[in-house]
């Protein structure tokens, strides 16, 4: 009746960390920062407790707060002063992200990643320009190939503003190759691309769309983001981005898609990123508010699980809170 193998021998306090397989470091985390051209002061985001939309003038202060926790990287999202059919404020030299990135990179040592997309900048909220008739015909949405050129302009404008890395998130076919070509032509051969390579059409983005004001005004994103039931397709999507020159491969969302994180880790040698999205953050906060979960513990366990599945880096709204604890 005596077991010979007793895994608990290695669970005592002195030895646990020696044999621990996964660890969490502040330097693995990327904190999202929202810069809002329409705001004069810092505005709390209701569905994402602890997060704010900050005016450009407060963007450096916001990033300094992140750095104080030990987190070294931020991803910047912008809310423009106005929207139009093409999303032209997304590549404006005086656009909200461009202005904020210039300041942040001038005055801090933060590693600055920018989200390259159009949904916060188009009046219809889609991640590209529309095909003719898209508003009337549910089979139509974004014109893929026409959108590529706009993504090129956005990425180059972010590079010119001083971004350290660009992260295209629009799920436009060919976006990584197009952006790589444009960056190289503008002399930014050394600027890496983190592709939102396997990005699913997920209901977990809800709070972000309130925060960044980027919900589609009609229809949804099912024609360009991935079908949540598809696992093999993620490998195909990611492979295309690898062939087009992606440097870091992202899976998004994270927790409901850990099988995909694990597949991508196994299949490719590139660094793998996971985006622990707004809904994953909001639901833990909501449960903790009711006293049903311990926020600190579940936040940490979530990030640890994402790393265990194979992510090297995690974009997460918990970055500052968890880093402070480490
Ligand atoms: C697109 C973008 C989105 C998120 C990051 N980049 C929104 C979307 O695809 O609808 C969502 C992030 C989150 O939910 O935390 N610009």
Question: What can be said about this structure in brief?
Answer:
This protein is an alpha/beta fold. Helices cover 37% and strands 15% of the residues.
How would you explain this protein's 3D organization?
The chain is globular, with a radius of gyration of 20 Å. The model has no long low-confidence stretch (mean pLDDT 96). It has 326 residues and is of the alpha/beta class. The protein has helices at 13-19, 59-68, 96-107, 144-161, 175-185, 206-212, 232-243, 258-267, 278-289, 295-309, 319-325, and strands spanning 29-36, 43-44, 52-54, 73-79, 111-116, 165-168, 194-199, 248-252, 272-276, 313-316. It has a single domain (25-325), classed as TIM Barrel (Alpha-Beta Barrel). Strands 1, 2, 3, 4, 5, 6, 7, 8, 9 and 10 form a ten-stranded mixed sheet that branches. Helix 4 packs across helix 5. Ligand PBG binds at residues 115, 117, 119, 169, 205, 208-209, 214, 277-278.
